[in-house]
Amino acid sequence: MKVALVQMDIALGQPDLNRERATALIRQAAASGARLIMLPEMWTTGYCLPDLAGGHADRSGEPTGALLAGLARETGTYLAGSVADERRGRVYNRATVYGPSGERLAAYDKAHLVPMMDEHRYLSPGDRLALTEIEGTTAGLAICYDLRFPELFRSLVLAGAELLLIPAEWPAQRLHHWRTLLMARAIENQCFVLACNRVGHDGKNGFPGHSMVVGPFGEVLAEGGEGEEILFAEIDLAQVADVRRRIPSLRDRRPDLY
Question: Quick check: bond before 63 cis, omega within 30?
Fold first, then answer.
């Protein structure tokens, strides 16, 4: 399956402009044959946290949901990424996956909020995991800071995940952590990891890109640079079963000890 990570810059607090830019990039990725297309974290707004509840966030998934549903149908692709979403007076950082028929296949609210970026002051945490089927393979969702919590990923894998999707706004000063943790999550869970990071600056933080596709043996199949680009990779989902058979570490766990 050909996948594409849309490593885009994000105009802070300008959702209409970001939706327009993402639409063009999604169509470009689809025209190049991508079947699964990922966008970064909070791609409609960036981290304009104080303004999210004032009108920049989606309202129960709209209008971004309708846009992604239409683009998924138009291009015949799976689309994933996260946006700010306000529901019942609370704002969540919500990742979604839309399928080729335009249906929303999964939604996940970020469970771990970043104290270094004041997320806890403006966002509410999610309280459940999310999995879905993509091309007959089970995929699990996570968002950015979640990457630091291996228990979340192990739970997704024990529930059947062979593919992990991680939209992010990971800052430049912790790029080494980003790369290392992505490879670690792939190696320890013997699965594909697709992680789409943004580029650019938001006035407080710089974002380095380096979106990555990592294989189930920990090999980096594709890695972006520091500028806006669409990163492509071909992944063979059958490799997951092969790696797990050759090194049966998931089978050999000792949960009775830990």
Answer: yes
Task: Name the nearest CA neighbour of 46 among 168, 147, 166.
Answer: 168
DSSP E strands in 110-228: the ranges are: 131-134, 137-141, 163-168, 192-197, 199-201, 206-208, 212-214, 220-223
Residue pair 148/111 in contact (Cβ under 8 Å)? The answer is no
Q: How far apart are CA 42 and CA 170, in angstroms?
A: 11
Find the catalytic residue in 48, 86, 119, 144: 144
- The 10s digit of each residue's pLDDT in 89-121 is 999 999 999 999 999 999 999 999 999 989 999
Q: Are 17 and 227 in contact (CB under 8 A)?
A: no
Catalytic pick among 48, 110, 119, 196: 110
Contact between residue 84 and residue 44 where contact means Cβ atoms under 8 Å apart: yes
Task: Give the type of residue at 93.
Answer: N
Comparing CA positions, the residue from 169, 171, 131, 166 lying closest to residue 149 is 166
Q: How far is CA 137 from CA 98, 115, 118, 160, 239, in A?
A: 15, 34, 35, 9, 12
Looking at this protein, which amino acid is placed at residue 253?
A: R
- 144 annotated active-site: yes
Cβ count near 66 (within 10 Å): 11
DSSP letter at 9 equals B
- 2 annotated active-site: no
- The owner of tokens 């058979």 is 245
Q: What is the dihedral of CA 128, 233, 32, 202, to 10 degrees?
A: 60
- Predicted model pTM: 0.97
